[in-house]
Amino acid sequence: MSSPTSVTHTPRSVDSDRRKVIVVGAGFAGLTATRELENAGHDVTVFEARDRIGGRAWTNSLLGGHQLEMGATWVHWMQPFVWTEITRYDQKIYPSPDIDHAYWVSEGTVHSGTEHDLDVALSAIQEKIFEGSRDFFPFPHEPLKVLEDPNTPDELRERFLAADRGSVLDCLRNGEFTQEQIDLADSYWSAGYQGSTATASPLMAKHWASLSDHRSSLMDEQTLRFKLVDGMRGLYEALAADIRSTIALNTAVTRVEHGPTTSSVTLSDGTVVTADAVVVTVPIGALKNITFSPPLGAEQQTLIRDGSNSTGFKIWIKVAGHHSVIAGAPGEHPISLLRSEYFLEDEDATILVGFGSDHTAIDLDDMTSAQKALDVWNTGMQVLDCGGHDWAADEWSGQTWATLRSGQFTQGWKSFHGNETRLRFAGADIARGWNGVVVDGAIETGITTARTLIADLKKVEPSSGG
Predict the structure, then answer these.
(1) CA angle centred on 247, ends 241 and 250, rounded to 5°
(2) In which band, very low, low, confident or very high, does the pLDDT at 16 lie, cut at 50, 70 and 90?
(3) N or C: which end of the chain has fewer CB within 10 A?
(4) pLDDT tens digits, residue range 310-331?
(5) Which Gene3D superfamilies does this UniProt record tie to the protein (predicted)?
(6) Residue 255 and residue 265 in contact, taking contact as beta carbons nearer than 8 Å
(7) Which pLDDT tens digit goes with each residue over 384-412?
């Protein structure tokens, strides 16, 4: 009888495996990627153009000292990546308030009811908009599965491609729905897409549905219901505290050179820093600020040139008195979606949050502009203060969350997943799961991009002997 074969594994040398990696951007994607790369033994430096970490997540003092979210706000336990970090760093959540009164505008008429009335009115509309979501997204975190699977029936593949064309509201213009219903849908999705519904890919709404068990109520709960007790700041600062690497603030990257084994970045002061790899986590709307050599691929350049569907804004408004409201208005109005978020009993005031499709339609810091926007609903609310951050005009973001134009779901963003050179991309805008809209997608790509790069950087493999 032959004796068993023994295999001896030589321990990997940490020093021989150590590589230098540059991460561009200190938002959730950049911080997560940095932590992963550090834990694998690599030497990481982070360059951040802003004077703070967090990216498009930013807890700031506003409207008389209240801690408010300028960008990303809501989280949920069904968002797997952000919930892991919430658990890891012992963060707590609490709900946005229940609402007493709902208002929606159609053809100049203000309709009113309860929040339940609004939910019922929306449910039939959303069911039509979500049509096909179960067929198109059997695996929601693999959104292009039906295109990539050779066993997908041709009929399904053609329907999937067709659903990336036209507008998200086209399916409602068949005579089955009233103008009031269409306007209600326009209100909801003008805020959701952060841009014109006329150019919004229908597939994005269907994908959101698949991530929410194809239920509009769950989608609303995931994207508009639960906030962090210590704000987004509590989470991104906890994550940053786990990082030992240098995070250089106020340090913009203007150029990235990348090859099969090395890369380098040029900083705004002309300094060139070389590395074994570069991970760029810059939003799609700000990638135009960086020159890439060799140039990015045609699909990537097209997406950067055209931008996403995101041209909108988020505004915080303080009004006099107690107002428990949710309100909607079609995209031609400055604010498409408005809801009460904080009741300030000691000030006899309410803080509302609003979203609109066109950041040029309102002055976020001008009370007169905000008052004009609120007067659409004829509720008598009086503006005391307002504010926000214009992400679309911000050179380091160029957009709020990245939503997809017609045709962009099936091309463009996925091209940033390539690994042909030592240049890699991460960020919520190119996530496979919650693409663009929530922090979950940023963390997802920070992890997956870093882990793929870690595998590629391994040069010393275990040896075996007999």
Answers:
(1) 130
(2) low
(3) N
(4) 999 999 999 999 999 999 999 9
(5) FAD/NAD(P)-binding domain
(6) yes
(7) 999 999 999 999 999 999 899 999 999 88
Q: List the one residue out of 290, 233, 235 whose CA is nearest residue 22.
A: 290
How far from 270 is each of 48, 254, 265, 288, CA to CA, in Å?
15, 9, 10, 18
Residue with tokens 């019922």, as numbered in its chain? 120
Residues 203 and 410 sit within 8 Å (Cβ to Cβ)? yes
Whole-number Å distance between alpha carbons of 140 and 419: 23
User: For 191-242, what is each residue's pLDDT tens digit?
Assistant: 999 999 999 999 999 999 999 999 999 999 999 999 999 999 999 999 999 9
* Maximum C-alpha span of the chain: 93
- Best CA proximity match to 141, nearest among 205, 88, 207: 207
What's the pLDDT tens digit per position in 143-196?
999 999 999 999 999 999 999 999 999 999 999 999 999 999 999 999 999 999
Is the Cα torsion angle 160, 162, 164, 168 positive or negative in sign?
A: negative
Q: Which residues make beta-bridge pairs with 351?
A: 318, 342
Residue indicated by tokens 């066109």: 358
For residue 65 the two structure tokens come to 């000292």
- SS3 string, the chain, reads CCCCCCCCCCCCCHHHHCCEEEEECCEHHHHHHHHHHHHCCCEEEEECCCCCCECCCCEEEECCCEEEECCCCEECCCCHHHHHHHHHCCCCEEECCCCCEEEEEECCEEEEECHHHHHHHHHHHHHHHCCCHHHHCCCCCCCCHHHHCCCCCHHHHHHHHHCCCCCCCHHHCCCCCCHHHHHHHHHHHHHHCCCCHHHECHHHHHHHHHCCCCCHHHHHHHHHCEEECCHHHHHHHHHHHCCCCEEECCCCEEEEEECCCCEEEEECCCCEEEECEEEECCCHHHHHHCEEECCCCHHHHHHHHHCCCCCCEEEEEEEECCCCEEEECCCCCCCCEEEEEEEECCCCEEEEEEEECCHHHCCCCCHHHHHHHHHHHCCCCCEEEEECCCCCCCCCCCCCCCCCECCCCCCCHHHHHCCCCCEEECCHHHCCCCCCCCHHHHHHHHHHHHHHHHHHHCCCCCCCCC
- What's phi and psi for 219, nearest 5 deg? -60, -45
